[in-house]
Amino acid sequence: MKATQLLHNLGQSLWLDNITRDLLNNGTLQRYIGELSVTGLTSNPTIFDHAIKNSNSYDGAIRDGVAAGQSGEDTFFDLALEDITRAADLFRPVYDRTNGVDGWVSLEVSPLLAHDTASTLKEARELFARARRPNLFIKIPGTQEGLPAIEEAIFAGVPINVTLLFSREHYLAAAEAHLRGIERRIAAGLNPKVASVASVFVSRWDGAVAGKVPAGLSNRLGIAVALRTYKAYRGLIGSPRWQRAYNEGAIPQRLLWASTGTKDPKAPDTLYIKSLAAPFTVNTMPEPTLKAFADHGEVGSALPMDGGDCETVLAEFARAGVNVDALAAQLQDEGAKSFVKSWNDLLAVIESKSAVLQQAA
Question: Has 53 been annotated as catalytic?
């Protein structure tokens, strides 16, 4: 039995952190669903930038956008929604079978809106309405400005993937925004079953301290932060507050491990998959990591609910001069800026292709 199936059997959802039109057209995504236990998919501006830049599969749609006089952003969302809705339809049987727990795809609002609450909420509602798919998460960054938009989107019934979370404190703030939205729905007499995931980025922690800490601490910070966050997650979903929401029909926001591709070439390529096995969580994997895990991965022991040795490890990092809270804020800010850069690169690619196709017409 493949390691991917074993991990699925343990109770963790395996999602693909990639989407391209070629993956859809050539049947690869369908094969991953059937053979590698993939039950969902995530996307971001960087993924779409690479997809559109490296394929001519989008040229016809870009040509149509030029003919219609669309802006680059409008053209992008047309392209993205076509891909995302096709993927959502492939995962719809999983969504139906699991009663909406699994089988999700994710599409991000413009990263230019990361610090604009009102515009983030407006775009989230519009994208969800345009897609007309129940198994679509709209991704909103868990920045200070994003948190109110997350609460309002949940209250409006829009499923949300909270992205760009790096620490326990980031996670708890996002979980609080989600739960407030659910509680407001209950108070208003609305159905509280509005799904969400909270995406905690892992490998970027280790990249940030590489070469700056003792060798014995290499590639251990991301996992320690994840363990600390997992302990908080298990405590929250088992709390009386959440149990009251369950009693009204709500479903908990699941914890999702993001950025799980190994950056250090000296470390195992499946490091963050083996180390973060846990029931009722999601691990969204880059395509090379998914294939590597299916080929030679091993399923580790399930994460301890009490966080294991995370505080001991984090204390070692503190002694080595690492301020986890300050670094979490830095990583979130850098992540937001990175998505803005990818967004601008993406629009530049569309503009460049539009000009070439217009000249060839």
Answer: no
